[in-house]
Amino acid sequence: MSDLEDVPSVDLMSELLRRMKCESKPDKRLILVGPPGSGKGTQSPIIKDEYCLCHLATGDMLRAAVSAKTALGIKAKEAMEKGELVSDDLVVGIIDDALKKPSCQKGFILDGFPRTVVQAQKLDEMLGKRGVKVDKVLNFAIDDAILEERITGRWIHPSSGRSYHTKFAPPKVSGVDDVTGEPLIQRKDDTAAVLKSRLEAFHKQTEPVIDYYNNKGVVANLQAEKPPQEVTSEVKKVLS
Which of these is catalytic: 29, 40, 122, 150? Predict the structure, then answer.
């Protein structure tokens, strides 16, 4: 651990204030569910900061476990090198490990997991052993047609990362960056064909997860087509 004497006072104070603020926050264990482009990525950092939760993105956690060469990371790497999917038990084990961190003391946001009912059951079983359960599943409900307009209209300037939208934030001149005049590109994932297959996978695999948690009475349906600030207000109402 680094010597606290070398940490700037302002950083120490802000961390102390953050911890004091977090003390009074209730514990929350949340799952965010929604199709690609539904706004989960916009809302999760806001929820994380507001409720002092840790954000568990399973893809990032797997990569971290592999690079840290943890026991589970080594097993995951073996599976990946064989071109196999990492087993549900391994992923749940990596989540279980992550929950031991101080940053997860007040609870967590899970995003991108569980994707199937079997994964949801395994997650619930692991949490049950810890004497806790999922408190809320935030379902970012949005019509496929709105998503298509949202996603297929996105264009970016590759070198700066500036993003545009043909309808909501168009460039001054169609197809070129406002600042440099260089051509804009569309990400491979932002085409109608890719979106269609991702949505099909979501409806087939993940919608049953919403039904599974609905039966437990923990699902809150959010109107994800609304502007981000309004969705944030909905989230706060649901979690208050």
Answer: 40
Q: Is 187 designated active site?
A: yes
> One of 187, 196, 204, 216 is an active-site residue; which one?
187
End-to-end Cα distance, the chain: 36
Query: Reduced to 3 states, what is the DSSP secondary structure of residue 237?
Result: helix
154 is catalytic: yes
One pLDDT digit (tens) per residue for the chain, 240 residues: 457 788 888 888 887 888 888 888 899 999 999 998 899 988 999 999 999 999 998 888 888 888 888 888 899 888 888 888 889 999 999 999 999 988 899 999 998 899 999 999 999 999 999 999 999 999 999 999 999 998 899 999 999 989 899 988 899 999 999 999 999 999 888 888 899 999 999 999 899 999 999 999 999 999 999 999 999 999 999 998
63 is catalytic: no
Cis peptide before 45 (omega within 30 of 0): no
- The whole model's pTM is what? 0.83
State the catalytic residue, choosing from 48, 77, 106, 198: 198
Going along the chain from its start, the domains and CATH numbers come out as: 27-143+201-239 (3.40.50.300)
29 noted as active-site residue: no
Q: Is 167 labeled as catalytic in the residue annotation?
A: no
Which residue do the tokens 């970012």 mark? Answer: 140
Cα angle value 168/173/175 (rounded, 5°) = 75
Tell me 116's DSSP state. S
Helix ranges, the chain (H)? 9-23, 40-51, 58-67, 71-81, 88-98, 117-129, 144-152, 192-201, 207-214, 228-239
